[in-house]
Amino acid sequence: MNRRFTTRAGLALASALTLTLALLQPSAAQEGPEMEAMKANCGGDYLRLCAGMKPGGPEVKACFKRNRPNLSPACSQAIATYERSRGRSSDDADE
């Protein structure tokens, strides 16, 4: 496997985790199957839509909020499942 691809994939995974933590309430930042699903499914969305932004920063949160209709189905579903598991709606995540 190409080293550059491996590094980029690792960055995408780390960025997805940081992004999801920024999107969610700090107290909800616990590992679990829903968080794992977001890490697995949202890294590509970060690279495609928000790659020029500092991972975890407010710009990334705004980018995901702005691009919510453009997220991949898998990422959108992972976020919705996480929010439901925490008793939050998609509208709550936008605030």
Structure at a glance:
With 95 residues, the chain is mostly helical.
List keywords for this structure.
5 helices; mainly alpha; 95 residues
Walk me through this protein's architecture.
α1 packs across α2 (33-50). The chain has one domain (3-93). The protein has 95 residues and is mainly α. 27% of the residues are buried. The chain is 68% helix and 0% strand. Residues 25-29 have low confidence and may be disordered.
Portion of residues in helices?
Answer: 55-70%
Shape: globular
Kindly provide the radius of gyration, computed on alpha-carbon positions and rounded to a whole number of angstroms: 13 Å
- Biggest sheet overview: none
Distance between the termini: 40 Å
Low-confidence stretches: 25-29
Report the total helices: 5
Which structural class do you get from the secondary structure elements? mainly alpha
Strand composition percent: under 5%
Number of strands: 0
Mean pLDDT: 75
Element layout with pairings:
Elements: H1 3-23, H2 33-50, H3 58-66, H4 73-85, H5 90-93
Helix pairs in contact: 1-2, 1-3, 2-4
